[in-house]
Each structure stands twice: as structure tokens, then as C-alpha cells.
Amino acid sequence: MEIICVGNELLIGKTLNTNAQWLAKRATTLGITIKRITTVGDDVDEIANAVREALERKPRFIITTGGLGPTFDDKTLEGIAKALNRRLELNEKALKMVREKYEEYAKAGKIDAFEMTPHRVKMARLPEGAEPLPNPVGTAPGVLIKTNGTDLIALPGVPSEMKSIFDEYVAAMLRKETGEITFFETSIYADNIMESTLAPLIDITMHDNPYVYIKSHPIGAEEKPHIEIHLSTTAKDSKTAKDRIGKAIIQLSELIRDKGGKVKLLKNENN
Amino acid sequence: MEIICVGNELLIGKTLNTNAQWLAKRATTLGITIKRITTVGDDVDEIANAVREALERKPRFIITTGGLGPTFDDKTLEGIAKALNRRLELNEKALKMVREKYEEYAKAGKIDAFEMTPHRVKMARLPEGAEPLPNPVGTAPGVLIKTNGTDLIALPGVPSEMKSIFDEYVAAMLRKETGEITFFETSIYADNIMESTLAPLIDITMHDNPYVYIKSHPIGAEEKPHIEIHLSTTAKDSKTAKDRIGKAIIQLSELIRDKGGKVKLLKNENN
After folding, report:
1. Which of 116-135 (A) contact B at CB < 8 A?
2. Percentages of chain B per state (helix, strand, coil), in multiples of 5
3. Is 3.40.30.10 the CATH number for A182-264?
4. Over the stretch B141-187, which tens digit does the pLDDT of each residue have?
5. Are B119 and B126 in contact (CB under 8 A)?
6. How far apart are CA B20 and CA B65, in angstroms?
7. Between chains, do A28 and B13 touch, taking CB under 8 Å as contact?
8. Quick check: B148 contacting A, CB < 8 Å?
9. Which residues of chain A does B206 touch, with a Cβ-Cβ cutoff of 8 Å?
10. CA A1, CA B240: separation in Å to the nearest integer?
11. Measured distance CA(B62)–CA(A236) in Å, rounded
């Protein structure tokens, strides 16, 4: 799977990309491997290029976030249409979704009067052949486009809307793909050992535990080391996954102690 | 400029990509435009592909973060070497930097004995023609490679090390490129107006203020709207920048009030 995030606010460092992390974590937990995350600005050609390049790598899924709203700089669907060489067209199902939201708001007195302005209609202009996904908490529908073995899913950038559409519709699509695969991860912490001393011990443990992926993350400085050691695996069931991780932790802990290091199950609070 | 972030921890959603935001913000403030941020895993081919594709777009700068350390999965320099069709070679200047760090640690009693293990020497194996950048707070040097009009700069993934090398060496390289250009940004907040009603007002204001970029970010839900309106510009001096933003704020505030909305200078605390 690939993730494409759209928004100038990400490229100027105004906004921290929590959407990418949330999507990556949820998809990983469902057993999906994410190969690349790309962030581009609110520019039709930049979006189209990123989508076209991702499609060429033939991932099973591409999820985009951002750029589905009513403003002039919400350009994701235009970019996707350009990448796919399709036209944007008024999608009747999407228009009904958008219209019903504003009728509801007007009825509840949240807006003065019901009116389908061009900016509101814009949210229902989807690439040809697209399927709108209802937005449980906002106005802009999500969009699903199946093309050449890739399911391309466009989600809004507002975190609550993105999460809501993902949980309601996208999670099931991913789960169907991976079946019953489980991702399991945990961390241990090492003190009194430098990352460069730890490195060969991780090599040995990974060699002896071929399904376990281990990565060290220094938290303290190299000369006053406190190192997080993150272990993860993907398996058919959670017992197998936990057994594998447990075995690797025992072996690695012994190797670290042999070198004079200390192993802890919790992070030092003062780091 | 483009940013390439390397690390499986980013692709599984374990780590929030604060490095990308920090770099994007610092570079933007120095007047540099970031066009794309790419995240890939600890895989030589994935890194090489991301670097090669970025080079083809001919940015003035590419900054990578992550993957310079002593462990087996620190593969950024191998990926860069592959993208550039250069070999990795022991860089004597880099080796001296790494050696001096470990000698210092041994002298201070922070490690048992000074020893240049293969994992430590690895941090000094740079692509041919590369220039090491001293790491003020860690062991792995940064790396600068000039190629075909692009300065490719590799920084560590540990935030304190990345920031330290950036501030010490990279900031000056970027500032030299942009001269005296200043980036200025501010936000105002609107209540009682939906984003879809605000959209045409932003269009008008941006049309009348061509150097000001305005983007709305809904914070509340669309039916109970609290909207951040972010205004930014880049100018030769900060007075020009502030005058431009001020003029746009006055015009947009009037338009919002005409539609029954309220404009605030601070964010609602309860959202």
C-alpha cells in the first residue's frame, strides 16, 4: 500500500502529519505493508504526478488524504482525474450525500438557508467511474476508484472525517485482502550499552529469529545510551506472533547482559 | 527542495514524522520551497529509487533523514550510492570524526575500551566524492554530495543530531541560496460561518492580494464551524510581508462579517 498526503500546510511545516501515522498504524495492524508515504502540495500537477508514479508501482491500495473540501485549493480529485486520464463529472450519488447534509444542517438551524452553492456542488464532482463513500461526520464524501488491480481511495484531510470513513468502509476492504494476518510489536529498553555495540547483537538475534524484525532507536545520546529496541512480526495468529517475539527477547537480553548492558521493559522516564 | 525520510518505524506508524515537519518549517522560514516529502523503509532499492526520482525532478536541495547509524538496517548511504552509481568507500575525514568521538568516550570512561568495530567504521563509509559534515552531538557524520546542480544532504534520524547538523552547516547553505527572502505567516479564526460559505470569500481576497496565500483549516465540525484561516507570503523584507498579510486580513474579515461570521485572532480553547 502507498499513502499520498496532500496539503501545502504539510510542506511548510505548519501541520504535523498525524494522518499519515494514523493510517500507517491502522493498516499495519490489519496486516498491510506500507511501502511509501508521499506528501505533495495543493497543486493539480504535483498530485497527478504522485498518483501516476504510485500507480506505476502497482500497489494493491493507494490511500490519499486531504484536498476533498469545498475550497479552491482542494484539488485532489482533479489531480487523480488527471493521473487516470478521466474527466471529473457530477456524481449523482455523491451529490445526494452532500445535499442531504446541507438540508439537515438547514433544518437544524445550523445554516441560514439550504443552498447548493458551486463550492458545495464541487465536492460531488468525482472522476468518471468513481464510487462515493459516505462521510459520517462531515460533508465531503470519500472516493473509491478501482483501476488496474489498484484500489485508489481518497479520504478528507480533517482527521475526524478521515478516521471515520476509514473505520466505516476502508478497514473492511483491507482486512478482506489480508485475511487473518496479525501484526504484533513490542519494545524493550537497554541501558549501559552503545548502539554500535548493540548492533552486532541484533544481527545475531535476527539471524536466529528470521520472522522477527528488530530495530534500535537511540533515545539518550550515544555516549549516555538509553536505547529502545523495537521488535515486530506478522503471523497467522497472535500466539505464534507472541511466541516468536518472546524467544527473540530472551536471546537478545542475554547477549546484552553479556556485554554489561541492562535490559528493561519500560522506558526511562527522565529521558 | 525535497525531503526524503528513511525508516520502517515511519511506515508502520510507530513514529510520528516530526523530523519532516521540523525540516520543512526551518527551510520554509529560510525562504526555500519544499515540493515533496517522501518516506520509504530501510531498504536499499526503495531508498535508491526515491533518491533517483527526486534527482530527476532537479531540485536545488535534497535532504534525507535517517539511516546513517551503525546498525545493519542503516542503509541510506548505500541507497544514495546506488542511485548515483557511485561506490561506497572509506572516507578518511569521516573516519577521523568517528574515531575521535569514540576515543573521547573511552577517555571519559563512557565506554570500556576504544575499539573501531566494523559497525563503527561503517558510519565512515560514504559514497565516492562525498563530504562529511561533523555531528556536534552524536557519532554518525552528516553527508554532503554535490551532483548535477543538486546538493544532496544526508542527516541522521535522531532528532537532536539532525537539528544540530542542520543548524550548524545546512542552514547557511540554504540561506546563501535564497538571499534575504523572508517567509511570514499568521492565522485568524472564524466562527459562525461554514467552510463552504467561506470558500468564495477566500477566492475574492486571494484574487485581490496576489502575493498572499490563504488556506482554511476546519477545526470544529462543518455544522458547528470553527475555522483556522492561515495566511502566508514570501517577500524581500518583513515589513512588506506584514503589510501584505495585514491588508488581506482586513479585506477577508469584512467579507466574513458581511456573511454573519465572527473573526477572532485566537483559537477557541474548547475546540
Report:
1. 117-120
2. 40, 25, 35
3. no
4. 999 999 999 999 999 999 999 999 999 999 999 989 887 788 899 99
5. no
6. 8
7. yes
8. no
9. 72
10. 45
11. 40
For residues B199 and B212, give the distance between their C-alpha atoms in angstroms, rounded to a whole number.
Answer: 15
Q: How far apart are CA B248 and CA B265, in angstroms?
A: 14
CA distance B45 to B263: 50
Query: Can you tell me the distance from the alpha carbon of B162 to that of B96, in angstroms, rounded to the nearest whole number?
Result: 20
The rounded distance, in Å, linking the Cα atoms of B135 and B160 is: 10
Give the predicted TM-score (pTM) of the model: 0.87
All three cell numbers of A229, joined, read 529496541
C-beta atoms of B196 and A9 within 8 A: no
Average pLDDT over residues B195-199: 91
Looking at chain A from residue 80 to 99, which residues have their Cβ under 8 Å from any Cβ of chain B?
Answer: none
The helix/strand/coil state of B81 is helix
Is domain B2-178 given the CATH code 3.20.20.70 in the classification? no
Torsion, CA B24, CA B27, CA B31, CA B33, rounded to 10: -50
Chain A residues closer than 8 Å to B46 by CB: 35-36
A-contacting residues in B 45-64 (Cβ below 8 Å): 46, 50, 53
Burial B182-196 (b: 16+ CB within 10 A, else e): bbbbebbbbbbbbbb
| E strand or H helix at B247 | helix B238-258
Check pLDDT > 80 for residue B235: yes
Q: How far apart are CA B97 and CA B250, in angstroms?
A: 54
Domains B2-178 and B182-264 share a fold: no
Residue B269 clears pLDDT 70, i.e. is over it:
no
Q: In sequence order, what E strands does chain B have?
A: 2-6, 36-40, 61-65, 88-90, 125-127, 131-133, 142-147, 150-155, 182-191, 213-218, 226-235, 262-264
Closest partner residue to A13 (CB to CB) among B24, B101, B138 is B24
Nearest-Cα residue of chain B relative to residue A109: B223
Name the β-bridge partners of A193: none
Tens of pLDDT, residues B57-108: 999 999 999 999 999 899 999 999 999 999 999 999 999 999 999 999 888 8
Q: What is the ipTM of this complex?
A: 0.86
- Listed by start position, the domains of chain A span 2-178, 182-264
Separation CA B223–CA A111 (nearest Å): 8
DSSP letter (8 states) at residue A168: I
C-alpha span between B122 and B115 (Å, rounded): 13
For the beta carbon of residue A22, count every other beta carbon within 10 angstroms.
17
